[in-house]
Amino acid sequence: MKAAVMVKHREALKIDELPNPKPGPDDVVLRVEACGICRSDWHAWQGDWAWVGISPDLPIVPGHEIGGVVEEVGSNVKKYRKGDAVTVPFHSACGHCEYCLQGRPNICENVVIFGLSTGYNGGYAQYVVVRNADFNLIRLPENVDTMAAAAIGCRYMTAFHGVVRAGGKPGEWVAVHGAGGVGLSAVQIAAALGKNVIAVDIDQAKLEKAKQEGAVAVVNAKRDKVPEAIKEITKGGAHASIEALGVRETTLNSVLSLRRGGRHVQVGLTTKEEGGMISLPVDLFVALEAEFVGSFGNPHPDYAGLLALMSQGKLNPKSLISREVALEEVNDVFKAMSEYKTMGFNVITRF
Ligand SMILES: NC(=O)c1ccc[n+]([C@@H]2O[C@H](COP(=O)([O-])OP(=O)(O)OC[C@H]3O[C@@H](n4cnc5c(N)ncnc54)[C@H](O)[C@@H]3O)[C@@H](O)[C@H]2O)c1
Ligand SMILES: [Zn+2]
Ligand SMILES: [Zn+2]
């Protein structure tokens, strides 16, 4: 099969021929129809995240935003058969640890992630193995196609969980810092769920897109002081704030734009610059009774609600796809990501 292989950090992925994968007894092989290019793949390509224990052995095939069709099933797999259209959360879970049993398999203690865990190749390829398939695969309703399925493999479903983690009531102010793949998704979802959304970015075109997706106000972080602008718009600060990039500036802007009792939701993961550590105004957290909430992926049980909203047309991840690319173009997309030049989702659809 054809695949894009990461051989060395920060060097062009190699378009190569690999043997077609075979499923283990609990696995399936998917034929990949669409695979999104997430900034987490870019982080892996940079060699980030050793500080959280993520440093897969190379070579590896990246890609964890997968929509596809079941090609081959392992002998123990009961729920799926060849031809089923599916998506799969980026975090493959064991199904039996304490957290899986609590309905939180996104924080499974035996988690493996496509392209980010040693030996677990991802979807920048014609075929991909999904482990523990009966537990991890998500069947698609008839009117949700593989392009939408790719988005809900990572960034859109992550944003859905982030908005859930932000909590609060309809009509509250939610600021979203970074209007990229995760951020525009969070804007669309929070707006659909009745929040007043403020989008923040450094790129006016992305802010215009955020308005189309339901943001009632936007702040250009290149032009304006973000906390002041948000406090002015909201008359006191955001009730909740979603960080959707992972750098010091956006994290601090998010925290400093909260109102009393506000919730900061950290979705972005940091770069080499921060190395996982960002100083925070802890006294302010105490005095305002603010909260710092981490948000990782989306628990498998919450897909039912997400898919129901998509199926009824109330959520539309496909409107955030700006570009379909060929496997060979993945290096161009990584380069564009280094310069914040991608809009929404770039998705590989030609293999
Ligand atoms: N927690 C999770 O489960 C999870 C899941 C998916 C992605 N992520 C992480 O989320 C982050 C975002 O990923 P993505 O694919 O959406 O990235 P992206 O590149 O699509 O979006 C980032 C956005 O930030 C904007 N930006 C750059 N500098 C800014 C600034 N100073 N102020 C405001 N905006 C600025 C860019 O213009 C871009 O629109 C990454 O760190 C990724 O690894 C986390
Ligand atoms: Zn588990
Ligand atoms: Zn991702």
TrEMBL record:
This protein's UniProt keywords: Metal-binding, Oxidoreductase, Zinc
Cofactor: Zn(2+)
Entry keyword annotation includes Zinc: yes
UniProt source species: Tepidiphilus baoligensis
Similarity comment: family membership: Belongs to the zinc-containing alcohol dehydrogenase family.
Residue ranges occupied by any Enoyl reductase (ER) domain in the UniProt entry: 8-348
A Pfam short name: ADH_zinc_N
Leader peptide range in chain numbering: none
Keyword Metal-binding belongs to the record: yes
Name recorded for this polypeptide: Alcohol dehydrogenase catalytic domain-containing protein
